[in-house]
Amino acid sequence: MTQEEKWQIRYDGLKGFIEENHRNPSKHRIEEHDMLNWLKANRKAMNAGKMKVERVEPFSKLLELIEQFKRKNQYQ
Q1: DSSP annotation of 5
Q2: Cβ(32)–Cβ(23) under 8 Å?
Q3: SS3 state at 3
């Protein structure tokens, strides 16, 4: 399995998780740490300009999806 295929599997897994649960991965749930760490590492690589060109556009779309499910203040 190539690195590109592994990246795509992680991408699809995270996107499916967000669409299914209508929330982002939590830092408080151990089973979601892998997804959260992958997301943070890729966000850091993109901001530093080190992400491969073909990955930038799909990852940007994922970040837009994440923005839709940002946490909200439950008391408002």
Answers
A1: H
A2: no
A3: helix
* pLDDT, tens digit, 9 for 90 and up, residues 28-71: 999 999 999 999 999 999 999 999 999 999 999 999 999 988 87
Q: Look-up: residue for tokens 């999806």?
A: 65
Do you know the residue count of the chain? 76
Owner of token pair 């300009």:
49
Q: SS3 of 65, please?
A: helix
Q: What are phi and psi of 68, to 5 degrees?
A: -65, -30
Best CA proximity match to 16, nearest among 71, 76, 65, 54? 65
pTM of the model: 0.86
